[in-house]
Amino acid sequence: MFGLVNLKPTFWDKQMRVSAPGASEYLFNYRRIWRLSILLTGVVALVPLIFITLVDYNFTEHAMVSEYLLRTSRTVSNTRRAISFFLTERRSALDFIVHDNGSEVLSSPDRLSAILENLKRSFGGGFVDLGLVDSAGKQKTYVGPYGLKDKDYSGQPWFEQVIDRSVYTSDVFLGYRNVPHLVIAVKQSLPDRSFDVLRASIAIEPFEDLLSNLELSGLGDAFIINQKGILQTNSRYHGQVLEKIPLPVPEFSDKTQVFEGENPTGEALFIGYRFIEDTPFILMIVKKKSELMKMWFKTRLELIIFLLVSVSFIMAVIIGTVTFMVNKVYAADERRLMALHQMEYSNKMASIGRMAASVAHEINNPLAIINEKAGLVKDIFTIKKQYADDPKLYSQLDSILNSVKRAGKITKRLLTFARNLEATIEPVHLGEIIDEVLSFLQKEAEYRSLGIQVDVPDDTPVIESDRGKLEQIFLNIINNAFAAMCDGGHLSIQVNRAGAEAVAVKIRDNGCGIAQEDLHRIFEPFFSTKTSQGGTGLGLSITCNLTHEIGGQITVDSDIGKGTCFTITLPLKTQPKEEAKPCACYS
Amino acid sequence: MRVLLVDDEEELVSALGERLVLRDIEAEWFTTGSAALERAESGCFDLAVLDMKMPKIGGLELREKLLAKCPDMKFIFLTGYGSEKDFTSATAGGNTAVYLVKPVDIELLLEKMQTLFSNPRGDA
Fold first, then answer.
1. Alpha carbon of A226 to those of A232, A235, A253, A274: distances in Å?
2. pLDDT of A25 above 70
């Protein structure tokens, strides 16, 4: 379709040709057709592909995001249940203890200490100390590591609240002991309208164990905050206990929620959270979207590569096919144009032939009369002996008769030329044809003092060919040679055998020559270096076609400044050809 | 030898006739085919020199008509058109004939006449 060196298709520069008004033109603007075809085919082929890929892209991305959100939500729910259960369990235990044991029993440090031991044993980690606080807020009894007996809690917010609600779960705080912990307090109303409060400190380690045991993908972080956004447990990436988290506190909801947010550095996050009932706590699980979506990025890359490869492949096929087809159409159009021009040319030649014949005939009649009249006068002189002794009169008559003979030769030649325009295969002597063609150009050669040397060996065989076409071929090439030569140039015509079945005619001039880059194009139709001087660029193209029509080959060799040599190889016997090959012959 | 000359150019045919007479050949000339045919009623010629292209009756047609009257007649044709080859193709298989392109050298014409008569079959 196209060579490696020249990727430009042959039709590319052709639509720019400007021709004379009325002359045959190319049917299409090939560059436009080429562009339009590629555009249309490309759009039709690529739009559905790109559309489907985009839909798939979005769908897959959406599905993966949903999947991760759902997974986060499930983890939040499960963890919330565990934490909620942990707190409820401890609260219920305290509630049971405070109601099961009277105020007096609980006031006994020994008894309380035994209870604490039992609690630690039955519930595992968590319980740190126990204290009984009276209605005035004074801690009557205390068991635990910190020696907080007689501590006065009256006026503290938690104490106010436990009076109000009977049960209270505190935020995590440092308190007097300076260790993060939380407090669960349960109120026991006494018959005398006073009350006791059983107060237990719970360490935060069990929460942290629970949270750190969660398997979280995507650099996930699970932690608990209170409703002011203060961390209640240590977190991996969002700060230590009692620090404020760098994320906004989520809106209240009584269900597990997940949403996509971002941290202060702009990183996209999946955030799941749950408000834990009857406590100030919010469980949060935060995952980094970019980590989670790594799988997706890989898939996405594959998708994009697939799309790019497909698009390139489709475009390559489209461009290749369109170029090929447009080239074919162009070639057909070129052949059509060539045929039209050739028809025009043969019509022109036929008209010239008819005109030459009728001119020759019209001239022949008066010539014949002059001939007879002068002949008669001469006869009278000769036979009747009247003016036999007047040499001057005789020479006048002879000169008239000679001129008539000369004119007769010219008209006969014209008649022969016109007759030869009809295609007939007959035995021809190449020497005769060359002489005949040269006879038309003799005068010009004399005026311009061009040397012409013809060498036809005696053993040159008579070939069977079309005399008219041979004449046109030689006439065209010798005419070109004349045009290429300066005055005083030299033309040589040499006939040789070329193998058993052919003869070769070499026509060599010492004219200006043909540039190497033009050499392979001179037989192309419409190629001309002298369009500005009225050349049609068809002369050599027609010559080449004529040569092919009679079964011959034409080749050219040229050195710029030194001259050009055309070699026409002709078969001894011509098989008439229906269709001529396109001419691209050069050596 | 009696020769019939027919050509629509009177100037030509009269001069040619006179030249032949000067050479002791019995020549009669006419400018139309019908006049020539009329003359042929009263006696045959040995040879006819005819122009190929004439108004009304052309050279070839005139030959047919003359041959009907005088089967032994021989013919020489003159024309301003084409060449001998055209003529041979046009008269292939016909009677004895010679074809000359105008202007004709009188010596050539005499030579052809001689040949026609020295060679009875006429294929000069």
1. 7, 14, 14, 11
2. no
Is the bond leading into A280 cis (omega within 30 degrees of zero)?
no
Q: How many residues does chain B have?
A: 124
CA distance A457 to B95: 40
CB contact under 8 A, A415 and B16: no
Nearest chain B residue to A415 by CA distance is B82
Question: Do the Cβ atoms of B34 and B66 come closer than 8 Å?
Answer: no
On the question of pLDDT at B121 being above 60, the answer is no
Q: What is the largest CA-CA distance in chain B?
A: 35
- Do A139 and A126 meet the contact criterion of CB atoms below 8 Å apart? no
Question: CA dihedral defined by A118, A120, A124, A125, rounded to 10 degrees?
Answer: 170
User: Which two structure tokens, joined as six digits, stand for A173?
Assistant: 């705080």
Residues in chain B within 8 Å Cβ distance of A386: none
pLDDT tens per residue, range A151-201: 888 888 888 888 888 889 888 888 777 888 889 999 988 888 888 899 999
DSSP assignment, residue A448? T
Q: What is the DSSP letter of A434?
A: H
Kindly state whether B9 is in contact with chain A, defined as any CB-CB distance less than 8 angstroms: yes
Chains A–B, number of C-beta pairs less than 8 Å apart: 76
Q: Cα(A88)–Cα(A63) distance, rounded to whole angstroms?
A: 37
> Cα(A341)–Cα(A32) distance, rounded to whole angstroms?
25
pLDDT tier at A55, thresholds 50, 70, 90? very high
Contacts of A379 in chain B (CB under 8 A): 18-19, 22-23, 106
A451 vs B81, more confident: A451
Residues 52-91, chain B, touching A (beta carbon < 8 A):
78, 80-83, 85-86
Please name the residues between 359 and 398 in chain A that touch chain B, using a CB distance below 8 Å.
360-362, 364-365, 367-373, 375-376, 379-380, 383
Ordered structural domains, chain B, with CATH? 2-118 (3.40.50.2300)
Closest-CA distance, B2 to chain A, in angstroms, reads 19
Query: How much is the CA Rg of chain A, to the nearest whole Å?
Result: 58
A368 and B22 in contact by Cβ < 8 A? Answer: no
3-state secondary structure A308-347: HHHHHHHHHHHHHHHHHHHHHHHHHHHHHHHHHHHHHHHH
- Helix and strand totals (H; E) in chain A: 12, 16
Give the closest residue to A83 by CA, choosing from A222, A254, A250: A222
Instruction: Give me the count of residues in chain A.
Output: 587
**ipTM score over 0.85, yes or no:** no
| CB neighbours of residue A201 within 10 Å | 22
